Amino acid sequence: MKSYEIAVIPGDGTGPEVIREGVKVLEAVAGKEGFKLNFHFYDFGAERYLKTGETLPDSALAEMEKMDAIYLGAIGDPRVKPGVLEKGILLKLRFSLDLYINLRPVKLYPGVWTPLRDKGPEDIDFVVVRENTESLYVGIGGFFKKGTVDEVAIQEMLVTRKGVERCVRYAYEFARKRNRKKKVTLCGKTNVLTYAWDLWERVFYEVGEEYPDIEKDYAHVDAICMWMVKNPEYFDVIVTDNMFGDIITDLGAILQGGMGIAAGGNIHPGKLGMFEPIGGSAPKYTGKGVINPLAAICAGMMMLEFLGEEKGAERLEKAVIKVVRDHLKSLSAGKMGYSTEEVGDLVKGYVENPPEEEVGV
Ligand code: IPM
Ligand code: MN
């Protein structure tokens, strides 16, 4: 039987609650599809940091590097200064493991509320490919005369040809494999950030020559924000840098129903992937059993796809669609009409006994 080694970092706040449901559902999928998932739990997060001062030791990174995938709940705790855990754990994983693609699908399932009044599932179905190791996130910069009236802060944006190339290539390949509109839109800011986005744009079209079957398209990030709201059906694959990708994927998340369902993958193609719900640790809901586990479950679905277990991913997606379409009142925490655990049980039930009818995957 095929088996996979999965590192699990439940993390902070509601992370452990949603990961528990994700693991339960994934085990059910594995049981049905005839493969095995061996979960290895790691307790990195706020609690451990507050006790030991340790965020993520290199020894753990080395262990995780050998796994087939990493399943992450959420990182962030109000007791810890912003940035410490984010940089020390989440960004460290992304950077050290060179997970250079942040893949964030924006897909509205039937029956799910969207703030776009006139749009439905047939309109909202695109993917954002966010570069995940460069741009403003590299942390280059510093203060000068800190704390004085003459204070200066510098935060540098770093872009490399290699980094852009592997990212746009992934986007083209993805558009090809996805086989829908076969279009990649570069989301940048060539009219103002004339070095960084000039490099992006040149590499985008250069690499694009290898993909004559894919339509190339460019739009500024500000315009993209508007178009995502006005005409989301225009998009197929959007490729962008780390910073813009961070921003537009929160907008994307609300279009598909919010943080209750939005999932993402941090991927080094062919090597390793880390999958996470894209919302935060939602500390105010911790321990109440009201948080929606579907984002974590959908992250698990992306993990199955990454592992090559497409049939399992499809089985899981059908179950999720059935649950959001026929059961949940809302995707928001506390308004689902079910507890966190009950939502997990519903999904598990449909994984084990798939709905007979067409659910529109
Ligand atoms: C995300 C988050 C992270 C980011 C934070 C928590 C560091 O917002 O995954 O989008 O900015 O990338
Ligand atoms: Mn973000």
Précis, in short:
With 361 residues, the chain is α/β, with parallel strands linked by helices. The chain is built from eleven helices and twelve strands. The model has no long low-confidence stretch (mean pLDDT 97).
Walk me through this protein's architecture:
This protein has eleven helices and twelve strands. The protein has 361 residues and is an alpha/beta fold. The protein folds into two domains: 1-100 and 265-361, Isopropylmalate Dehydrogenase (3-Layer(aba) Sandwich), CATH 3.40.718.10; 115-255, Isopropylmalate Dehydrogenase (3-Layer(aba) Sandwich), CATH 3.40.718.10. The strands form two sheets. Strands 2-1-3-12-11-4-5-10-8-9 form a ten-stranded mixed sheet, with helices on both faces. It has a two-stranded antiparallel ribbon with strand order 6-7. Bound molecules: 3-isopropylmalic acid and manganese (II) ion. Manganese (II) ion (MN) is lined by residues 246, 250.
